[in-house]
């Protein structure tokens, strides 16, 4: 099934060239279906690239989705034109009285800061409080997951001795979990972060379950027992070359960084990486949309019945 997005969103042309089913607003209007309303809080600096990554992976669901974007007013984006934000994004004040079926909160390159030092922290706290009563299920990614775990449960993040960057093998920690239905015993996912969370801090919270982890990358997926909160510490949505682009960016900035692990063939950055995580990334998002959003959300979204 298609995803419904604004006709002139830059990602639309990219995805159509990839033969991904994008429905324009006029087509969607004439369908007698209530699409799932998904809103994405995009905290990444390269917003257009992140939009494309997330829309590409959301498009693999058999459900019809109406996707909109949210940004925080208390942060000035340096890498995205203001015209793009004003055309395609809403502010929290615009949507705070609405309900949505699903929310995605992306990562952000602010791990070196304490949460309270992030310039938009107070506004982000408003969103995280709002989502409890206005969102059926929320998927948090990387720093977004760490921020939500800290806000809701007081779980701290800890600095790593070096950046965790690469493609890592993961296992399912809790069997018969709907979110991981259909997953192989061993599967891969990208990580790109400077901080980590500790198992003992998660295990002391009875509301949370560790669903997947990696010997090298640590905890990967945490879920609340009611399915309304999902926390993913990696970046399953990343494109094939995203880690390469991050590595080149860091080198140009003079940041001491190691090659992404298990990524370039023979650890040779001149060779093309091999895609090994796309299928499970698609399955993760499809399962979240189906089991935690579609199966749980009310048909009349804004009804109090």
Structure description:
With 305 residues, this protein is of the alpha/beta class. The protein has one domain: 3-Layer(aba) Sandwich (Rossmann fold), CATH 3.40.50. It is 31% helix and 24% strand. It has ten helices and twelve strands. Strands 1, 2, 3, 4, 5, 6, 7, 8, 9, 10, 11 and 12 form a twelve-stranded mixed sheet that branches. Helix 4 links the parallel strand 4 and strand 5. Helix 1 packs across helix 3. The longest helix is centred in the last third of the chain and has 17 residues. The protein is globular, with a radius of gyration of 19 Å. It starts with a strand and ends in an 11-residue tail after the last helix. About 2% of the residues have low confidence.
Structural shape:
globular
Q: Which value, in Å, is the CA radius of gyration?
A: 19 Å
First CA to last CA: what distance? 29 Å
* CATH classification class: Alpha Beta
- What portion of the residues fall into strands of 2 or more residues? 15-25%
Count of individual helical segments:
10
Order of helices and strands: EHEHEHEHEHEHEHEEHEEEHH
- Biggest sheet, in brief? 12 strands, mixed
> What's the architecture in CATH terms?
3-Layer(aba) Sandwich
Structural class: alpha/beta
What is the CATH superfamily label?
A: Class I glutamine amidotransferase (GATase) domain
CATH topology call? Rossmann fold
The overall number of domains is: 1
Runs in which pLDDT lies below 50 for 5 or more consecutive residues are 27-32
Protein name: Homoserine O-acetyltransferase
Catalytic activity: L-homoserine + acetyl-CoA = O-acetyl-L-homoserine + CoA
Keywords: Acyltransferase, Amino-acid biosynthesis, Cytoplasm, Methionine biosynthesis, Transferase
GO molecular function: homoserine O-acetyltransferase activity; homoserine O-succinyltransferase activity
């Amino acid at each position: 099934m298609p995803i419904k997005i604004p006709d002139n969103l830059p990602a639309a042309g990219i995805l159509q060239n990839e033969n991904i089913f994008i429905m324009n607003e006029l087509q969607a209007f004439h369908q007698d279906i209530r699409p799932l309303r998904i809103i994405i809080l995009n905290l990444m600096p390269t917003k257009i690239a992140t939009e494309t990554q997330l829309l590409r992976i959301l498009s693999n669901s058999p459900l019809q989705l109406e996707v909109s974007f949210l940004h925080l007013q208390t942060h000035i984006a340096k890498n995205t034109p203001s015209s793009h934000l004003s055309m395609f994004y809403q502010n929290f004040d615009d949507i705070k009285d609405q309900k949505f079926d699903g929310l995605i909160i992306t990562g952000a390159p602010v791990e070196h800061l304490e949460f309270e030092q992030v310039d938009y922290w107070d506004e982000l706290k408003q969103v995280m409080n709002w989502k409890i009563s206005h969102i059926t299920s929320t998927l948090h990614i990387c720093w977004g997951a760490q921020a939500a775990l800290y806000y809701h449960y007081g779980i701290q993040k800890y600095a790593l001795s070096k950046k965790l960057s690469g493609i890592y093998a993961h296992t399912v920690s809790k069997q018969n979990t709907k979110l991981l239905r259909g997953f192989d015993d061993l599967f891969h996912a990208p990580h790109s972060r400077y901080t980590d969370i500790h198992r003992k801090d998660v295990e002391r919270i009875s509301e949370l379950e560790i669903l997947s982890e990696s010997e090298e990358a640590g905890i990967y997926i945490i879920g609340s027992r009611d399915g309304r909160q999902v926390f993913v510490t990696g970046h399953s949505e990343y494109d094939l070359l995203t880690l390469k682009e991050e590595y080149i960016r860091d080198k140009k900035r003079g940041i001491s960084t190691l090659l992404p692990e298990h990524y370039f063939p023979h650890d040779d950055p001149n060779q093309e990486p091999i895609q090994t995580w796309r299928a499970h990334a698609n399955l993760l998002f499809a399962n979240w949309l189906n089991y935690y959003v579609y199966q749980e959300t009310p048909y009349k979204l804004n009804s109090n019945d």
